[in-house]
Input
Amino acid sequence: MAKPLQVEVYNPNGKYRVISTKPMPGTQWINALIEQDCRLEICTQKKTILSVDDIITLIGDKCDGVIGQLTEDWGEKLFSALSKAGGKAFSNMAVGYNNVDVNAANKYGVAVGNTPGVLTETTAELAASLSLAASRRIVEADEFMRAGLYDGWLPHLFVGNLLKGQTVGVIGAGRIGSAYARMMVEGFKMNLIYFDLYQATRLEKFVTAYGQFLKANGEEPVTWKRASSMDEVLQEADVISLHPVLDKTTYHLINKERLAKMKKEAILINCSRGPVVDEVALVEHLRANPMFRVGLDVFEDEPYMKPGLSEMKNAIIVPHIASASKWTREGMAKLAALNVLGKIKGYPVWSDPNRVDPFLNDNAPAPAACPSIVNSKALGLPVSKL
Output
């Protein structure tokens, strides 16, 4: 058993004991719990990633629910411990739940929450930011200035690529992929090619309408194309952003062979899941193709990077901050808390987890529902009629 951990306690006489394995942004999530008679214990231990034993120690003998993080290993041991302590609810403060063994949660009757619906625009914005930073070599130029190497303007100094008129490629045109595509098309007047198993009708209509607007104003219209294969996107696009789910079919989706299909000066962006890209192959490709650039927010063995990646000048690497806007992170915290609270209170599950604005309204009480429970069907939980 791990040693006792430092915790901060709110509403110590509350009826329901809820654990948060990390401090989270904002206070709305705290207020939502304590106003509903919860005793909230927030782990403040100076430790980036808690071990399974650490979390078991936090759960203790009585715990109604836990708010956890995607860096934690939620499997058989933790769900068993939570169930023995009387807990029926766990929520990731994340939309993804690759760190959760949902089958183990089902075995112990624990509802697993996540936080979709608040990450779309902020994740798309970071993907767009990385695209622009890579195309104009902003990070390289910044390091150059800070090193005191600038001694005057030169014609060839940090020449990058113009985005206007080029083709942006999107792999996975769901909510985030489509939002990113709209930003790049409207913001930089790029043409679009996308690959998705399902037709992105709304995205196609948007690009068509924007193209008509440009044409009416005497400018070259933008175009869109739905590719018949992912390789078609890789071969034709100048900037490619990855937005697939992570499963057995998308593990190492971008490998040595597919990197070789891309243009020599292409830009690859990944704000989805790290294992979608074969990082070893990527390092080799970056080393062999100095004008090929990449922007990464996620990594294959996070928080670690494959050897050589950090040394690549043609790679922009940031520490999983796609959702790190104040509004989004505070919203994620509140949704995670309301998932746990809703299950404790016996509330039904919200009918559309991607439309969560009613839960984030500061001027009205949150609906009496769990915003998003990923295993609601397996547990036979009722769906809200609100």
Notes: Residues 326-345 form the longest helix (20 residues). The chain is about 35% helix and 15% strand. The CA atoms of residues 43 and 210 lie 49 Å apart. The chain has a mean pLDDT of 96.
